[in-house]
Structure formats: structure tokens, C-alpha cells
Specification:
The chain is 50% helix and 8% strand. With 92 residues, the chain is mainly alpha-helical. α2 packs antiparallel against α3. It starts with 6 loop residues before the first helix and ends with a helix.
Length: 92
């Protein structure tokens, strides 16, 4: 809407991000992305896995989920890609 990127490019980036978090490993493993619905404070930018010995973060999880829900509400076109964004946002 402001010309920073096309809607199609935003859909592509958003879907890649939501698909990653949907498929990311959760569990007690030291390199998981999250655990029991919470995400770690620092994730490796290449792998998306926990780095260092950082803590689970309620704040970062809340910020992530706020963005996820915002994306789900924003992408409201009736097509398969934006519908997938809404499904993933609700599921996460």
C-alpha cells in the first residue's frame, strides 16, 4: 500500500516465515526453536534454531504472535496463499 513491496512479495515472505515457525522443532533439545508454545530469545538467522544458551522468552513470543495474528488479519484476499496465511496464523 505504501510502495515498499508488492502484495505478492509480502505474501511470499509472510508465508515463508509462518511455514518455518509451523514446522520448526519444539522440544527440550538444546537447538530447538521453542518449547511448549514459547520461543527462545535468540534464534540463529540461518537455521532458525536456538543459539547460545538463551532463555525461553515470554516477551519475544508475545511479539512474534502479535505479528502472526496481525498478518492473519491483514491478508484477507480470497486466494490459496492468503488463506494459508490465515490458517497458519490461527494454528500458531
Amino acid at each position: 500500500e505504501r510502495g515498499f513491496m508488492t502484495r505478492a512479495a509480502a505474501v511470499e515472505r509472510t508465508l515463508a516465515t509462518l511455514r518455518f515457525f509451523w514446522n520448526a522443532p519444539h522440544g527440550p533439545e538444546p537447538d530447538a526453536t521453542g518449547y511448549k508454545g514459547f520461543y527462545y530469545h535468540f534464534l540463529d538467522m540461518r537455521t532458525g534454531r536456538r543459539v547460545w544458551n538463551c532463555e525461553l522468552s515470554t516477551i519475544d513470543t508475545a511479539l512474534l504472535l502479535a505479528g502472526v495474528l496481525t498478518a492473519g488479519a491483514y491478508f484477507d484476499v480470497d486466494d490459496e496463499f492468503e488463506a494459508e496465511i490465515r490458517r497458519l496464523a490461527d494454528a500458531l
